From TrEMBL:
Residue ranges crossing the lipid bilayer per the database entry: 59-82, 88-109, 121-146, 152-171, 183-203, 223-243, 255-273, 279-299, 306-326, 346-367, 379-400
Family: Belongs to the ammonium transporter (TC 2.A.49) family. Rh subfamily.
Subunit record text: Homodimer. Heterotrimer; a RHCE monomer interacts with a RHAG homodimer. Component of the ankyrin-1 complex in the erythrocyte, composed of ANK1, RHCE, RHAG, SLC4A1, EPB42, GYPA, GYPB and AQP1. Interacts with GYPB (via the N-terminal); this interaction bridges the (RHAG)2(RHCE) heterotrimer with the SLC4A1 Band 3 I dimer complexed with GYPA.
The protein, known as: Ammonium transporter Rh type A
InterPro entries: Ammonium/urea_transptr (IPR029020), NH4_transpt_AmtB-like_dom (IPR024041), RhesusRHD (IPR002229)
Species whose genome carries this gene: Cairina moschata
Domain Ammonium transporter AmtB-like, first and last residues per copy: 63-403
GO biological process: ammonium homeostasis
Localization (cell): Membrane
Record's keyword terms, sorted: Ammonia transport, Glycoprotein, Membrane, Transmembrane, Transmembrane helix, Transport
Membrane topology of this protein: Multi-pass membrane protein
Top-level taxon of the source organism: Eukaryota
Pfam families: Ammonium_transp (PF00909)
Length: 446
């Protein structure tokens, strides 16, 4: 084989993958000798080239698998998670799909603008993953205003938010050189506080008392749980998607155990905060995912799963208490109506993830393990993400408040029939309900 290697002739090609497609070389171990087989093409490639090509193909395949997982999270996970409202399932899944399909195209352009090569935007699997990431911010904000905005308003929000997100992400990763591999700060915290700012500006006094359609049914909660399970299963891929290849196993492991810890804590606390000691489907649908959000920033930095489990447990506690105590206060005192509770699933755990990133970076820097990332830049990244999100959300909310954008009336909020063709039985149910209300009012006057 040594003599053969010295006389190897290779076809000039700058692309190793193309080279591998031109030649087929197989080495089979037979004792101490190797037998080589050459394809009909002229020339032979060396074994090291073939191994290199195999490695490249494996990396591409693994990246594509991760992309598929993230894609499922965006279109299925987020969509079904918001189907808990009894008469807003079509819009939850349908508008989610519209936002995602539109947003990933706009995200490709906005993020590509900051990473142009020779004046061109590079489009590959990695850019597609980042496009899905940018879309996630708009979907998180969609949860804060779910049922209260029109499709046109959501498309405008998507354009503005992804544009602002791309600028903030460049500031965080390009200027501050902060680490945020799972995007706890740049996606989750940003999307949540952007949506809360929009919700504040679009606040409707008529919805202060809970709308009749703003509640789940047995079956709608079951559909929402499907979304939770898809997100839960694929979250390790989300947090490891843009990590360095060598750090992906660590990011996957840490996310895996953080999610498990937050799930156990959520079930325990859900029973404790309920007067009858029962589990809450709202908490199980959302707070079980808080561990994946919180561990995102430092998912590729933690060397021990126990640290990730601690972060996940704290995230579960914060999320449950936020749903139980903080959400009513935001609605009654600050006029922030958060339909899906994104503040408790994405906002607070995202802030926790940013703080965890500061602490872990400081510890590693003290031990001399990390000279690239500094606690100060991590803190600046967290502050900029929240501040830019609040300012951008307020500006976006002011634009969406323009009367010609087709915002539904208070009475028609949380109702699919305003924008969708619904089955006849649903229409009959609405008619019967209206007739019953009119008859009740008539009888009350008699």
């Amino acid at each position: 084989m040594d003599e053969l290697s010295e006389t190897i002739e290779t076809t000039p090609s700058p692309n190793r993958q193309l080279l591998c497609s031109e030649y087929s070389v197989r080495a089979s171990e037979q004792g101490s000798s190797r037998s080589w087989k050459r394809s009909p093409a002229s020339g032979i490639v060396t074994l090291e080239h073939q191994v290199s090509c195999w490695a490249t193909e494996c990396i591409i395949l693994l990246t594509f698998i991760v992309f598929q997982d993230v894609h499922v999270m965006i279109f299925v996970g987020f969509g079904f998670l918001m189907t808990f409202l009894k008469k807003y399932g079509f819009s939850s899944v349908g508008i989610n799909m519209l936002i995602a399909a539109f947003g990933l195209q706009w995200g490709t352009l906005m993020q590509g603008f900051w990473h142009m090569q020779d004046g061109k935007i590079l489009v590959d699997i990695n850019s597609m993953i980042n496009a899905d990431f940018s879309t996630a911010t708009a979907l998180i904000s969609f949860g804060a205003v779910l049922g209260k905005t029109s499709p046109v308003q959501m498309l405008i929000l998507t354009i503005l938010e992804i544009t602002i997100f791309a600028c903030n992400e460049h500031l965080v990763t390009g200027i501050f050189q902060a680490t945020d591999v799972g995007a706890s700060m740049t996606i989750h915290a940003f999307g949540a506080y952007f949506g809360l700012a929009v919700s504040l500006v679009l606040y409707r006094p008529g919805l202060k008392n809970k709308h009749e359609n703003e509640e789940p049914t047995y079956h709608s909660d079951l559909f929402a749980m499907i979304g939770t399970l898809f997100l839960w299963i694929f979250w390790p891929s989300f947090n490891s998607a843009i990590a360095h290849v060598n750090d992906r196993p660590k990011a996957i492991t840490n996310t895996y155990y953080s999610l498990a810890a937050s799930t156990v804590v959520t079930f325990a606390l859900s029973s404790l905060v309920d007067q009858r000691g029962k589990f809450s489907m709202v908490l199980v649908q959302n707070a079980t995912l808080a561990g994946g959000v919180a561990v995102g920033t430092c998912a590729d930095l933690l060397n021990h799963p126990f640290a990730a489990m601690c972060i996940g447990a704290i995230a579960g506690i914060i999320s449950v208490l936020g749903f139980h105590f903080l959400t009513p206060v935001l609605a009654s005192k600050l006029n922030i109506h958060d339909t899906c509770g994104v503040h408790n699933l994405h906002g607070l755990p995202g802030v926790l993830g940013g703080i965890a990133g500061i602490v872990v970076t400081a510890i590693q820097r003290t031990n001399g393990k990390s000279a690239q990332h500094t606690p100060g830049m991590q803190a600046a990244a967290l502050g900029s993400s929240i501040g830019i999100a609040l300012a951008g959300g307020a500006l976006t909310g002011a634009i969406l408040k323009l009367p010609f954008l087709g915002q539904a009336s208070d009475k028609n909020c949380f109702d699919d029939s305003i924008y969708w063709e619904v089955p006849e039985e649903e229409k009959l149910h609405v008619v019967h309900s209206n007739n019953y209300d009119e008859q009740s009012r008539f009888e009350a006057t008699m």
